[in-house]
Structure formats: structure tokens, C-alpha cells
Amino acid sequence: MNPERTFRGTITIDCATGLICGIGPYDPGADIALPAGSLIFPGLVDVHTHGRQDATGQEIYKEDFKTSGEAAVNGGVVHVAEMGNNPKPPIDDESYAEKSLLTASSCVPVTLYAMIGPQTMPLSHRVPYKMCHARTTGKNDIIFFPSWGEIEEAAKRYRGCHVSHHCEDSAILKLNEHEKLHELKRPPEAETSSVKKAIYLIENYFGKGKLCHCSVASGIKDIVEAKRRGVQVACEVTPHHLYFDTSMITDANRPWMQMNPPLRSPEDRLSLISALREGDIDMIATDHAPHTVSDKIKGASGQPHLDTLGPFVTWLMAEHGFKPEDIARICSFAPAQFLNQFLDPSYGNGYGRIEVGYVGSLTVIDTSKPVTIAKSMLKTKCGWSPFEGVTFPGSVRHTIVKGAVLK
Fold this sequence. Notes:
The chain has a single domain, classed as Alpha-Beta Barrel (TIM Barrel). 30% of the residues lie in helices and 17% in strands. The relative contact order is 0.18. The protein is an alpha/beta fold. Helix 6 (188-206) runs parallel beside helix 7.
């Protein structure tokens, strides 16, 4: 079944395996019969989240795998991939296994990234990796690269691995560290320079890779050109870079509008929306960063988005002309193309399609039922959302994880 084709029918899920076992004609007598206005998507997959829980427990006051799983279900997300920017990052078999045990408390499956640092080595089994080209948060020197030369030396050790890149150039950040405003400290050229370097690494060492939270239109042009010459590079964009821009920052909301990379110009934002709709940007990934209110006031970067991904995509449909097929592509099919290569055989053919043999995890969105985001509806432990008070034109009716209706 083409991932960009709509159809009306009945989906049957084997509750023993959690896999889709039948696709048939529409049956109004099915266990869950949906009213007009409901859209069934292959489950939304989020390939970039920060659950905050690790073996040290230092940051579970912000979030843990239990609460991040509940937030995911609330937002229609059926599987998350968790970044390793932790006080104790997963960098080898032992630390990766240690963190993996903690994911058992999540009500949605979790795939962990391992982190790459100046002295780390590949794990003994296939996992996704993340490489930060610059310091993004905290003071963890295990995963911090002081220079480009050390990044390239690490790339040689991880030849053939699938690496996701946080693209900001340390040297350019250093030149701008005395600027007053956050968005000036981390200017667009820091990202575009690092995007070029990430593409170089993918071409020469990794073979394929993914660029995280792209925010600058000129960087997307470099990615498109690389794809045209055959580089296997995919890219993400976040809800905050699609919805907010620098024209919306005020003295009052500035702490809440801080993230890495920072918000960009209105022109960049509109270009990102267009690139996502046209397929030049591959997928949405939330970069869910559940800092507490106190953390944000103290200058922490990032926003929580797991609770609101489902409602957010209805805004893309209503305000920016995205079709349901587009949402399936950018929130299900494309993220699944990344995720499926790291899943064990129990996931069958994986995520991203509503077909026999694929995971029976589905997201049902009601386009006829608007929702106004309020603190009281959030499941994330940090307890706030940048979308509080925003009314989205649709809402999540059901989140089904391997045949189990969790919402």
C-alpha cells in the first residue's frame, strides 16, 4: 500500500503479536468504529526525544520514561527514539544496556541512541548514534568535541554506522559567545557551516545519516543538493521551528523561546514549512526537551512537544495546506524508514505503513474536534507547553500501541 494513498476500510490487529493481520472493507461493526472527520494514520513516530532518565537519576525531576511515554500517547506518538545527552550518556555496551533497562517503565517502545565522543568506540550491536558538533547543553566532556579534527577522527572509527548530527559549528559559536541574545550567540552560519561538514562526514565515512532539527533555509538547500548527487542524508524539523520565529520573541517569553539551535527569521520559518510540505525536509521530530519552569528561567534550552504533536499536525493541514498523505509521510513513513533498521524481529516489517505484517500501532486524529492546550491536559512531568492557550483545529482521538488502545 502506497504510504501517500488514503483509503477507507477496517484494520485487524493480532493482539498476540501486535502486528496488523488484516485489511478489509469498511465495517461499521468493528470494535472501534470512527465517526466522520476521523483519520487513521500509521502510528506517529518521534525519532528525537529527551526523556532525561539515566542511571544517575539526576534529571528525573524533569521527566522519566514513564511520564515521557504517557506524554507520547497523549500526543498520538507510538514509538520514540531517545537521545543520550545525559549526565551518564550511553557510550558503550554496558552503559547502553544500563539505560535500556530503564525504558521498561514507558508505555510506548523506546529506541536508544548511543553517543559519540572523542574517545568512544562503536557498540557491538547495531544502534543509532548521535554526534554533537558543538556543546549543546550541560558540561559532559565525554561527548564534547573541542575541534573539527577530533570529530573527523571519531568518524573514521564509526565508518558505516548510522549517525544523527546536531549541526552547530563550535568555532563559530566561540566567535559569538559574547553576544547578548541567544539567537545571536548561535547564528545561522554556525548551523550552515556544520551542515556542510555533516554532509562531508556522511559521504566519506558513514554512508548515510540524519541531520537533527534543521532551522535555516540555506542549510536545506545544501541538503537538497547533496541528495541530488546521491548522498543518503535525511533531515528533521521541529514543531517550534515551524510555529515560532524571532519576530515572536518578547522580553516576557524569551526564556520559553530559547532552544538550540535557536529560533530563526520569519522567512526561514516559512521556508521550512514549504520545504517540509514539498518533501525537501523528510520528517518532523519534536526534540522534546522537558525542562521545568525553574530550569527555563535559569536559561535551559528546549521545549516539550510530545503531548501536542498530534494536535500540531492538524494546524499544518488547516493553515498550510498539508494533506493527510503528507502527515503520514512526515510523521510516520519517513521516521519509520530511519527507525525500522534498528528494531528486532518482533516488530515484523516495522512502522510507517498500514499493511499486513506491519506494527499494529495507529494514531487516530479527529479533524472535527478542536483542542485548546492547557496545563491540565499535559502528561509530561515538566508540566508546561509553549502552546498553552493555542487552539489547534483537531485532536488525538485514539493512540493504539501494538493493538492496545492507550487513549
